[in-house]
Design a protein that fits this description.
This protein is an alpha+beta fold and 71 residues long. 48% of the residues lie in helices and 14% in strands.
Length: 71
């Protein structure tokens, strides 16, 4: 089922969330973060659903840091 897929992904997981995302509210990011072992959660204050378009430099930096620290 879906929960098995969340816990057996084989790599690190970074959950990105905008704090004012109307399509995928932050509670869903928190749900994933709580259920994926070792997942990291990064929330972008005041950002909505299009994080890479709204905050391209911040998202790129976060992905770079995550890639540098992932096994």
């Amino acid at each position: 089922g879906g929960s098995w897929a969340l816990t057996k992904n084989g790599g690190g997981t970074l959950v990105l969330s905008g704090t004012v995302d109307p399509l995928t509210p932050p509670k869903y990011a928190a749900f994933l973060h709580e259920r994926i072992p070792g997942a990291q959660l990064l929330s972008f204050e005041g950002a909505g659903h299009d994080l890479p378009l709204e905050r391209p430099a911040e998202v790129a930096a976060a992905l770079g840091r995550f890639a540098d620290t992932s096994p």
